């Protein structure tokens, strides 16, 4: 599946897996599946799942936090002349 980093806006091919060192107690982690970052587990809070929302359902609360975080970074960039 595809996921977009809400800070950098970069899109990655990712997998959800429990077969990774960052996974504990059977909790899935999001792992980048391409490029130089391949194999790196990333924090879900900074990514937006793209494509078919029926395939990956995320709690509305978490999506709301993502939107607020993106708005915060947009505000900071505007206040600081384009850099966080």
Task: Write up what this structure looks like.
The chain has one domain (2-79). It is globular, with a radius of gyration of 14 Å. It has 84 residues and is of the alpha+beta class. It has a 5-stranded antiparallel beta sheet with strand order 4-3-2-1-5, with no helix packed on it. It is 24% helix and 25% strand. The protein has 1 helix and 5 strands; from the N terminus they run E-E-E-E-E-H.
Q: Which structural traits does this protein have?
A:
alpha+beta, 24% helix
User: Which structural category fits the helices and strands?
Assistant: alpha+beta
Distance between the termini: 28 Å
> How large is the count of helical segments?
1
Unreliably modeled segments:
none
Helix content range: 10-25%
Estimate the global geometry from the Cα principal axes: globular
What is the strand tally? 5
Strand content: 25-35%
Major sheet: order of its strands? 4-3-2-1-5
- How many domains, as an integer? 1
Reading the helices and strands in chain order gives EEEEEH
Mean pLDDT, all residues: 79
As a whole number of angstroms, the C-alpha radius of gyration is 14 Å
Largest sheet: 5 strands, antiparallel
């Amino acid at each position: 599946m595809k996921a977009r980093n809400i800070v950098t806006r970069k899109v990655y091919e990712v997998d959800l897996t429990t077969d990774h060192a960052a996974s504990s107690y059977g909790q899935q982690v999001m792992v980048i599946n391409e490029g130089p970052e391949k194999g790196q587990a990333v924090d879900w809070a900074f990514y937006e799942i793209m494509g078919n929302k029926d395939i990956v359902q995320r709690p509305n609360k978490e999506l709301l936090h993502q939107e607020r975080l993106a708005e915060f970074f947009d505000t900071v960039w505007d206040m600081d002349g384009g850099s966080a």
